[in-house]
Amino acid sequence: MRPTDHHDQAGVGINAMGQVTAEPFARLAQMTTAEPSRSPAGTESAWAHTHVPQRITSDADPDHITSRWDAREQEAMADWIEAQVEQFAPGFRALIGARRILAPTTLQAMDENLHNGTTALHRLAIFRPTPGTGRPETPVKGLYLASAAAHPGGGVHGAPGANAARAALRSRGLQSLLHRAQPV
């Protein structure tokens, strides 16, 4: 969620310089909509996040996030994300029954490879996801690996998905993404 595309593009550059922008974007997913078992019947579970620099040098917001990620900074960032959602979905805050905050330091402690998977040598390139399966095809017909855990690995945005798309097209006898759609 962002007011304009300019906010997203400017925010990426500002984050790269170690600064927290005054208007970062926020991303929200309704988890129960995708998987009903995520919360009790009649309720919704939402997940939201934003991007902040790994090493913060300055913050344009009066809350002054510093990278300590103490309770005050965690609450300030969560409040900011809720306010962003509220702009696009009025009444959102009134529906919140509870919230759980996972700061960058908490996420990293839970999984040090949280950015697109591990970069350990034995898990890169042809070894993704396991040795001998460095292709998007799986033993399940019509199921292709297209995540950062697939070849060629994390940090190569789009390549695993492109590989999976080409494999899916080949399985249908097509060689290019430029073919006209066919009825299934």
UniProtKB/TrEMBL annotation:
Protein name: Phytoene desaturase family protein
Originating species: Streptomyces sp. R44
Organism ancestry: Bacteria, Bacillati, Actinomycetota, Actinomycetes, Kitasatosporales
